[in-house]
Amino acid sequence: MKILVFEYITGGGFNKQELPDSLAGEGRLMLHALLDNLTKLDSLEVTVMLDWRLDDSADIPGINTALIRPEHDAIEEFSKLAKQCDLVWPIAPEFDGILQNLCQTVESLGKRLLTSSAAAIAVAGNKFKTYRLLNRNQIATVPTQMLDDSYSQPLDRLGTGGEWIIKPVDGVGCADSYVVTNRQDVEQMTAHKKQYIIQPHLQGKKTSLSCLFKQGRAWLICANLQRFEFINRQYHLAEIAVNHHPDSGEYQQLIDKIGLALPELWGYAGIDLIETAEETWVLEINPRLTSSFAGIYDALGINIVEAVLQLVHGDPILNPVCNRSITVQTKQEANAS
Question: Which positions fall inside the ATP-grasp domain (predicted)?
Fold first, then answer.
């Protein structure tokens, strides 16, 4: 079986401009973990797209590398390579419809997509659509409103403690997300031409769930603790303790509800939570590999690639061979993602 891996940031998506340090760092982390999982399996011929500036990483045993240079159109190259493969695994940010469009391309070619469908990403990749979906299905989620020209509700009605957080509706991680206390802060932070949402700034334990989904069913792999630094009104993800929390059943029950609410979710996805004394709130659904994925093999001995391939024809086999917490460092020198 031939499989194409395209991690957008490191794979040439920014081949005509400067590589963003924070996203490139996270991209390398996930790409290397994915390739490590792939090389542990037999009967796969792997091709990976790689930005021309990262050609020092091109010589990976057992991996075919397609270098993407400045003169290339990365999306055209992706389509050409996908046509030659049986399986395609894109990893990309949700902003500007990037991940959704890549998945639509794979679907239009009739190739097996090893992520959620474009339809699922159209919902999960939009924080306001995600909020409405969860709210409709009685799943506790952080109250969310669009922040646009028609917005007139006083800020003091939106949250507790006088603090709110604004973020792009399709943003990745904490990029361009800010904690604000008044309308002047909002106007200053939203000068960019983007669509923003606004939410009350809740304080609590920041947990992420690593999961598999298929046709309304959900499997919990592990629960992880996210540790952030707070600098200049922004959260910066510093590290993740993968497999930090044992599950008493609460997390599995939650993702069961999410799977039924969004049955188009397929394969690996990450669920971000804020846990307060009163409630466990779903913050967002990441319909793709997340940074936590990079620690799963060392924490549990589970090959997620193998489990995702099992999903194609049946149920995944998730048998841990060890059970420990692994810390994944995500902080970048210039800017954390």
Answer: 131-313
Helix (H) or strand (E) holding 52: none
H/E stretch holding 83: helix 74-83
DSSP strand pairing (217-231 vs 196-200): unpaired
Paired sense of beta strands 2-7 and 87-91, if any = parallel
For the 145-200 domain, the top CATH level (class) is: alpha beta
| Cβ atoms of 118 and 104 closer than 8 Å | yes
Domain ranges of the chain: 2-114, 124-139+203-329, 145-200
For the entire predicted model, the pTM comes to 0.92
Check: CB of residue 265 under 8 Å from CB of residue 112. no
Q: Which of 108, 22, 15 is nearest to 55 (CA)?
A: 15
Please tell me whether residue 255 adopts helix, strand or coil conformation: helix
pLDDT tens per residue across span 317-332: 999 999 999 999 987 5
What residue spans of the chain are helical by DSSP H?
21-39, 74-83, 98-109, 118-124, 127-136, 183-189, 250-261, 296-300, 304-313
pLDDT of amino acid 7: 96
